[in-house]
Design brief:
This protein is of the alpha/beta class. It has ten helices and 30 strands. Strands 1, 8, 9, 10, 11, 14, 15, 19, 20, 24 and 25 form an eleven-stranded mixed beta sheet that branches. Helix 7 crosses helix 10.
């Protein structure tokens, strides 16, 4: 996957700038949708950049950029969690109505009318920009967001639908991008289209915008669309939900800048089957006596990056560029199985003798590096850029970690001064060891352990559905001179190395880092295994040695 580069970039070379605010969409003379983005440099200077509306899923308020590229290691914000009951009421307010210390956009009054959703949990007030609701919940992909401000919307992607008892069969049109033929995206699409709450809020975005335009200029509503009318969007909420987000806070007020996790998505169907013109089974045989030797060579330079063009439309092409993004996890209330249907056959090779060699060198032609997040038109020249943000958690996150969590429960019950913060992540999909024997993706539990509210150590435990004897790793910082980013980088390195080593922690990495003390606790099989695990946790956390 490639990195999105914002161009033109108005700041100095290597200067860090933070995305402060994303304004409401407006139309250009060519009827293309754009958004105004406000950036602040380290000196507080403000500059605005116009970007295509389709870029919204790939940019987040609060992120820092250098040379037009998101610098993820500059993000020091901690993730905040909020549990939202299903009967929570969302109220719409303007940017000018929230506490100024959350976000005053450096006095840019033109954004004061931009809208946010406000909700209250206990004594805390939460504000989420309507643009974040659109870009993270209602349209988290470039292809989706370019449909949310059109009359037909998601229907353009569907040729036929066959609903059944707890199952649905979707036949996609060729307009549905090939890059989005992923189980998690298809499941999310089905939720957007067929969940009544999600579809209601999806349709309301465009309807509310047209209504606002008619109120602003009753005689010429289309002209009102060039003035960046505030976009209204409300999160669909039919069950209790948990959000994790990054943002800013002031006293008991929180501005949600980036939603990174959502549970409580209520699917309509437990099984989604789908077909697509690109999922047709191909016949690779050649015509008699003829052959095809067409080969493609991809040569990528070290700094090969795709540039988001400032507004030209894309050409009609089902394949698109993949832009890496921080994953945002979502969890359905029930398991959703997704299956691709291949029930037709066609000839792939026309039988023409073709010995051409096609080269794609990302350093040789600038046009190869340029992409756009605008929708396609007949005059389009550039490839589309697609963002990959969502990661569906299909199963109980404790799967394969049950014994480990039971040990934590025991320690917590009988040693009241000990407490834990728990995160569970998927292992990188790099080699066979990333998966369990049953094909499910292996997980890693990352535990932050405290004794009397004082931080003691980290614990890394890998899921063992297959009972693989992977040791538990304890990491105790012996110096305070490390940052969260440095520790996350260490975790990533350790997880990649344990995959490369087939389930063994990498001694070279452990020995080369002096600011941590590492200890490995092997899994002793049968009856004494659980007792040994509990004893080791107590030693490392309770006794501090």
């Amino acid at each position: 996957m490639k990195t999105l580069v914002i161009k033109p970039w108005p700041f100095k070379k290597d200067e860090i700038a933070c995305l402060q605010w994303i304004g409401s969409p407006f139309q250009s003379e060519s009827n293309q949708w754009f958004i105004n983005c406000v950036f602040n440099d380290t000196n507080g200077n403000t500059k605005q950049i116009e970007l295509p509306f389709g870029t919204l899923p790939g940019i987040k308020i609060g992120r820092k950029y250098k040379n037009g590229i998101w610098v993820d290691n500059e993000d020091s914000k901690e993730t905040i969690q909020v549990d939202i009951p299903k009967d929570t009421t969302f109220q719409i307010c303007s940017l000018s109505e929230i506490p100024k210390k959350l976000n005053d956009v450096n006095g840019e009054t033109r954004f004061n009318n931009d809208l946010l959703c406000h909700f209250r949990i206990g004594e805390n007030n939460y504000y989420v920009p309507c643009m974040e609701v659109v870009g993270s919940i209602l349209a988290p992909y470039q292809a989706f967001i370019n449909k949310i401000l059109t009359p037909s919307g998601l229907e353009d992607f569907i040729e036929a639908v066959e609903p059944g008892l707890n199952i649905i069969n979707i036949k996609f049109t060729a307009e549905y991008p090939k890059k989005l033929l992923k189980p998690e995206v298809v499941a999310y699409f089905a939720w957007l289209r067929f969940n009544k709450d999600a579809r209601r809020e999806w349709n309301a975005v465009y309807k509310n915008l047209l209504a606002r335009a008619a109120e602003t200029l009753p005689l010429f509503p289309a002209l009102a669309l060039i003035t960046a009318l505030p976009l209204k969007a409300v999160p669909p909420l039919s069950t209790d939900s948990t959000w994790k987000f990054k943002g800013t806070s002031y006293i008991n007020n929180f501005l949600i800048q980036e939603i990174t996790y959502r549970s409580g998505l209520d699917p309509v169907f437990a099984s989604v089957k789908y077909s697509h013109p690109d999922s047709i089974t191909g016949n690779k045989g050649n015509s008699p006596g003829l052959k095809s030797n067409k080969r493609r060579k991809y040569k990528e330079g070290e700094t090969s990056q795709f540039v988001d063009n400032i507004g030209l439309p894309s050409r009609k092409k089902r394949s698109s560029m993949s832009i890496k993004q921080q994953e945002a996890q979502f969890i359905f209330t029930e398991r959703v199985d997704v299956e691709k249907i291949r029930n037709k056959s066609k000839s792939v090779n026309s039988g023409r003798n073709d010995n051409r060699q096609i080269n794609f060198n990302n350093n040789s032609k600038e046009s190869i590096n340029i992409g756009t997040t605008q929708d396609w038109t007949l005059e389009g020249k550039f490839n589309q850029i697609e963002f990959f943000l969502l990661q569906m958690v299909r199963e109980n996150f404790e799967k394969g970690l049950e014994k480990f969590f039971k040990a934590l429960e025991y320690v917590k019950k009988y040693y009241r001064s000990i407490d834990f913060e728990i995160s569970v992540v998927y292992m990188p999909t790099k080699r066979t060891f990333s998966l369990n024997d049953n094909g499910t993706r292996r997980r890693c539990a990352i535990i932050k352990a405290y004794n009397r509210s004082v931080f003691q150590c980290y614990i890394l435990e890998l899921s063992r559905n297959d009972e693989w004897p992977i040791s538990t790793l304890f990491i105790r910082p012996i110096s305070t001179s490390y940052t969260n980013d440095e520790f996350e980088s260490l975790i990533n390195k350790l997880l990649y190395k344990v995959i490369e080593n087939g389930g063994h922690w990498d001694a070279t990495t452990i020995d080369s880092i002096a600011i941590y003390r590492f200890e490995i606790s092997k899994h002793i099989m049968k009856i004494w295994g659980q007792l040994t695990r509990i004893d080791k946790i107590i030693q490392m956390v309770y006794n501090g040695n």
